UniProtKB/TrEMBL annotation:
GO terms for biological process: spliceosomal complex assembly; spliceosomal snRNP assembly. It is found in: Cytoplasm; Nucleus, Gem; Nucleus, Nucleoplasm. Part of the core SMN complex that contains SMN1, GEMIN2/SIP1, DDX20/GEMIN3, GEMIN4, GEMIN5, GEMIN6, GEMIN7, GEMIN8 and STRAP/UNRIP. Part of the SMN-Sm complex that contains SMN1, GEMIN2/SIP1, DDX20/GEMIN3, GEMIN4, GEMIN5, GEMIN6, GEMIN7, GEMIN8, STRAP/UNRIP and the Sm proteins SNRPB, SNRPD1, SNRPD2, SNRPD3, SNRPE, SNRPF and SNRPG. Interacts with GEMIN7; the interaction is direct. Interacts with GEMIN8; the interaction is direct. Interacts with SNRPB, SNRPD2, SNRPD3 and SNRPE; the interaction is direct. This is Gem-associated protein 6. It comes from Carassius auratus. Pfam families: Gemin6, Gemin6_C. Residues 69-164 form the AD domain. The SMN complex catalyzes the assembly of small nuclear ribonucleoproteins (snRNPs), the building blocks of the spliceosome, and thereby plays an important role in the splicing of cellular pre-mRNAs. Most spliceosomal snRNPs contain a common set of Sm proteins SNRPB, SNRPD1, SNRPD2, SNRPD3, SNRPE, SNRPF and SNRPG that assemble in a heptameric protein ring on the Sm site of the small nuclear RNA to form the core snRNP (Sm core). Keywords: Cytoplasm, mRNA processing, mRNA splicing, Nucleus, Phosphoprotein. InterPro entries: AD, Gemin6, Gemin6_C, Gemin6_Sm-like_dom.
Length: 185
């Protein structure tokens, strides 16, 4: 059986938003919801949210993790709670349609830059070495390879705005400019 630290980022991603019990080398157990797993160190970020209390965040270092068991699967409601703990309100306000559009824009941009990308549900997967989760910004990239991570993040940062990314948009602008010039004469 593979040790936790030697698992793939895709494997770790399967634990995000689920309530888990993490056991470390000293047989200590920690329970909470997985917010993320660091792709470089395999460290697990657990969040415990009790009613009427501030959320508690605990990081279990990847090299110390011996076992992770899912206690309860996450739901859309728990995902929303988890996001509200860390993400700014603006990021949470994106509709499903806006997220889909953003995912498609990022996918097309990566393909245009000759990066092999596939969709796996809500995730974008780059060459089986990196994943990009919603809302598909540079900070939403996750990879065990720092080189791949930095290069893809750099590409995502350079993503053109929607107007620049629409084929034929420049031609439409030119036609509208010509029309407005003709109307003023």
């Amino acid at each position: 059986m593979l040790q936790w630290i030697h698992r793939s980022p895709q494997h770790w991603h399967g634990f995000i938003n689920h309530e888990v019990c993490v056991t470390n080398r000293d047989q200590q157990r920690f329970e909470g919801r997985v917010f993320t797993v660091d792709p470089v160190s395999a460290s697990v970020v657990l969040v415990s949210v009790q009613e009427n209390e501030c959320p508690s965040v605990r990081v279990i270092l990847g090299h110390a993790v011996t076992d992770v068991q899912i206690l309860r699967r996450g739901t859309e409601e728990t995902e929303r709670q988890m996001k509200s703990v860390f993400l700014p309100d603006r990021a949470q306000d994106l509709s499903a349609e806006e997220l889909k559009s953003r995912r498609e824009s990022v996918r097309l941009w990566l393909e245009k830059n000759r990066v092999p990308v596939t969709e796996d549900g809500e995730l974008l997967c780059v060459a089986n070495a990196l994943t990009i989760s919603a809302p598909y910004r540079p900070g939403d990239c996750s990879s065990a390879s720092e080189i791949i991570l930095s290069r893809i993040q750099s590409l995502v940062e350079k993503l053109p705005s929607p107007e620049e990314n629409i084929p034929g948009h420049q031609a439409q602008l030119s036609r509208s400019n010509i029309t407005s010039v003709l109307q003023t004469q």
